[in-house]
Queue: 4 jobs
Job 1
Amino acid sequence: MTINEFVKKNKPTIFFFFFISISLIFLSTQTITKYIRSVRIFFVYFFSTTYLPVYKIVNYPFDTFNKFIQLPYMYEENVKLKEFVKKLYFEKLHYYAVFGKKQNEQLVNELSKKYNYKLFSAEVISRDCKNWYNECIVLVDNPTILKEDMPVILYVEPDKFYFVGRIWTIEKNIAKVLLITNPLSMLPVRIKDKPIYGVLIGNSSIILSMDYILLEDDVKLGDIVITSGIGNIPEGIEIGKVIDIDISSTGFKKAIVKLNYNINALKNLIILFPQ
């Protein structure tokens, strides 16, 4: 029997023993690596009259083999490192969330003492893209003392308050806020430093309409619109400024008002308890 015939006849067996040998080689990589280093040192020491060229020639295949057998270990270490980085990232997010919440609570307590109002912090946790300018969901720590129609405001440093909306519905420690931009929102307002009153109506955008202004009232572009104090909402909380003036079909003046704050970036809000 020739060698070719023997190989063809026993091809599966040969492949089997070949892969078994490869497996055993990989299982004993540490021992093999030690022998490889010994062989490399032998070649470099006994066959080099000029050390550097021979070292490079001999070293390259041995280093390549070492790198090859180290690939599984490198891959495993890389997977572990990715998992560790992912864990650290989530811990960082959690830390910033807790730290930010504590900072906001401290700020609200300071503002409550400064302005002699009972204030509580509320964190926006959800906004539906279909009702972006109509409502938002807030998380509160003391839901038992909440009531519908309580004003919700935004504080902007160093010393600015803006009216955002009112508590609409309450369920456990979650409340839905009716935003001032909601068409269902109708808020009595006035012009700052002027005895000019009207009703601010939402329009599902940052542009609102101040209706029912008397024709003789001297409304001007750039006038600041604030809460009027009528109802349970304190007077003087800023909302926006007049950007256009028109005459409505009802015979009243109508002022187009643009919000003075970014309603798209609501995060930490304040619930105000009227005195």
Note: The radius of gyration is 37 Å.
Job 2
Amino acid sequence: MEELLWVAVVLGLLLRLISLYFGGIACFALKKEVQYPQAKKMRRIAVMTAARNEESVIGGFIESIQKQEYPQELFDVFVIPNNCTDNTEGTAKAYGAQIIHCPFPVKHKGDALHQALMQLQKKGYDAFCIFDSDNIVKSDFLLRINDAFDAGAKVVKGRQLACNAHASWVSGCYNIYFNLFHLFFNKARGACGLSAKLVGTGFAVHKDVLERLGGWNTATIAEDAEFSAQCALLGERVWWVPDAITYDEQPTSFRTSLVQRRRWCSGIMQVAKLEFTSLVKRLFKPNWAFAADFTMFLMGAFAQALSIVPLGLTFLAAVLDGGDGILNFFQVMGAYFVFYYSIMFSMAVFLTYHQEKKVFPKEMRSAIFMFPIFMASWIPLQVLSLFKETSSWKEIRHTGKNKSSLPTS
């Protein structure tokens, strides 16, 4: 029994070291938000979205791009329809977007971006901005990323929020999660000179980076994380641009959320298997900090999955001990749950209060109470992904009907 407890303690301490790393970086979130001076040079930008059965939302996305305050002659909107069974292409054309067809089969988003950029890189654009098709893009987005490019950035990431945060407790939890991630991960890293995390949408890449990489070449279902790894291997920082904001539609059912986040977890582990060795080798070259930080990010996914092992060993030791061992175990776990729930609940209250302009909409109250459960549900998803990888992308339908949390001005 004592041996089991010692193994649990040692493994738990090793996992806590990874947590301490993230906690240490998160302290930089206390610093002032990064700001960039107004750009002196305006760049030519290609705005891109890979669209699969997005007929119901693609029009809203294109309209939000057409309303950009950026000079209209300096950007174009491209839609990449793939594997569609609806009229995504026709709708995109009707709203004024240009269409790029993929000459080869598309298995995932990375394939679509690869084939589209092969065509667009020859057309003289300075940068390429990538969105999901359900996004509503704030009118100054392109201006803000151009400011970052003028300040020296080559890869930039904007802030992502849910447009339907008030639709259900699930979509509300996504919005709280994004705010939490932006505060303690992206803002903190922006403050200490590390890379922000690319999350699928609302980011831009300078042509120089794509030329160095030989185009867009990702093979996993987590193309954003894989591209982040490639940037780290180049020694290229992903700059955080908090004022470049996109709103996208999040799942409103918990079941759909589990499917989506399972794909994210599995994709991160695919990237780890593909790039971990190269990232470790990169630690011994200049600009190693980006590779080191991203390596820790990848390790964090595995650490979260393995966090149940010390718990299981402790429970087994309690069973073998007999007597009051099991009772003591559940008492300790109960106290831990209360502590965990209190921390997550407090964060949800703070982040909602801050974003919702010091009010608590009734639609967000259930999300605040359920947020600790939402966050805890990542652990079984990580465990499942550790033992059973998924490489297929299951379509998540967007309706475009609920934009309850979009700003009114």
Note: The chain has a mean pLDDT of 90.
Job 3
Amino acid sequence: MVVGCPASKDAVVDLHFAGAAVHSCHALFTNFNNLHVGKLFIVIDESGLWDGNNQLVAQLKAKITEPIVVWEKKGVDAINTRNFANYILTTNEAHPVKVDPNDRRFFVLRPSDHRLGNTACFRALAAQMSAEGSAAHFYKYLESYEGDTRIIGDKNHLPMTQAKRELLEHALAPETKFVVDLLENEQKMLTVAGNWEPVEDGAFYPSKALYATYCAWWDSNGMSSPYKPSKKSKDEFQKQFLKITGLESDKRGDTRGATWTSTEGVVKKLRKDGVYYK
């Protein structure tokens, strides 16, 4: 479950008409959006926002944060109106959206499945949700939540969850995943001596060995998915590797490569870039 959280939106509306649900991308992004205007809460259920569809995710991000939306209805001139909408994506997909480093829009939860198959429970829940006055009661509960629990939420800094961390790691560029696997000893490095060993501070790794390690990692990790990226050429990889790690190009004799100066320094660089979460 992914929640799209705007920075700040205040509205007073008729709660009976405060929500809407869509079940397709067409309904969400169509020009004629009368269904969504003036809504506080919009549920997007299995609507095809898979992680590889970057264009749709970008459009959703804009919908989450834009203070003004264009209200367009058939046969009527379009007008601008304030945007109060909050979004929730419900899905069985393991990776429903691509979440970028330093994301400020998505709060991600993985609900418990202990009620799976309990249709009686969900029928009772649905009846309670649709009962007269339930929306107003729930809205009042949300208004008093911070005061009752003393949990004060910053709308600009959403909590990190394990589910969101998994989406972030899933969306990393292949070369960044490669560096992370080096750090965590999931991938050994080919050394000057021709051995496969964990990276070591101060060790020099020739460009040829670096690229051979990268190719071995690529072949063993099935990097044809999720985005079907292309494997970098040797020169492209070298530049990307140095950029990701913050290391500098080095030379020993006639051999070019890179010196792994400090694991701590590489970790610090990745954390600063928002791509390492441990």
Note: The chain has a mean pLDDT of 82.
Job 4
Amino acid sequence: MNPSKQAKTRDIAEAAGVSTATVSRVFSRHPYVSEEIRQKVLEIARKLHYAPTITSSRYLIGVMMRSIDEGILFNPYHNQLLHHVSQELFRRGFNIRIFGENQLPYLHKHSFAGVILTDSTVAEEIRESGIPVLLVNRVIPGMHSIVTDHREGIALAVRHLLENGHRRIGLLRLTDNWGSNERESGFRSALKQMGVEPDSSLIIQYKEADDPVRIVQQLWKFRPTAVIAEGETVGVPLNYAFYRLGIKVPEELSVITFEDPMNSQYMTPPQTTVFQNFAVLGQAVAETIADLCASEFRWPKVPECRVLNCSQLIERKSVRNIRSGVLADKGKS
């Protein structure tokens, strides 16, 4: 074969001594192909520098979340991530299927080119099935993942508060969450870099189902001047708790929310927030899962963990400069 000519499916089939249908089954991960034939076809594909055409009818990407019954699709984080991931995958010729971890048998009944996971509880089980897996904002050693630089993201919030005179800064963080652990580490590091010793009494862990009034009460008894609250839907319950407890924002407490871009702008007052650039994150996720699906016959392989610096601080009206007594933010709403 002329090396300058791009290899086609029939070239692979002739060299392997199989039909073009068998070659197609290998590249679409069809279960009814022997391992010997599969490896032979892939080896010839590598030698001929063949890259299969990815079509929507042949390549299907699964997007697995926590139980769909939990209303996960109403979560603004997942909504925006899905929007940008699906746009880029559709552009590349992929179809996607969204399902919850409680629908795991569905995965085994269908042929998926790869799976995107936004949670990690079933990651090992899926990997054992041989399907390429990509974790988003979760890390498991030995598995491919795309993560936002959560430490730098929360450092943006810490520096903003320190610049406005705050030293007693609280952190409301989720429990048992890799991203939350990263943010707490970044929170502590950013304070220390500015000569402020973190106060563990101002770091409160909570679960999404916890009573927000009780959580804020627990923090408020230590009288912070500011708080950073993380969680994709934290803005509304936090605002409710401040109202119930009579805490005035930002006169008595400055507030920065983390990753609640949709709700935070409609709070009273509009909340300063740190958010991930979902367009950047979504494109990176789509690119990486596409490369993972082709990694058996395309080089180089995808790195195990890719860290994106795609967070930014949006200033609104929930932070007060405690030295001057005026709003620190730019007044955006």
Note: DSSP finds twelve helices and twelve strands in the chain.
